[in-house]
Amino acid sequence: MAIAALTLLFSMITSYKSALRVKKQATLDAYNLLQEQGLDRLNDYHTENVKEIIKNEESNEYKEVSKILARIEHFSAGINEGIYDLNTLYELAHGYFDEAVYNTVIKLINQKEEDEEVFNNYKRVVKKMRIKHRKQSY
Question: pTM to 2 decimals?
Answer without folding.
Answer: 0.85
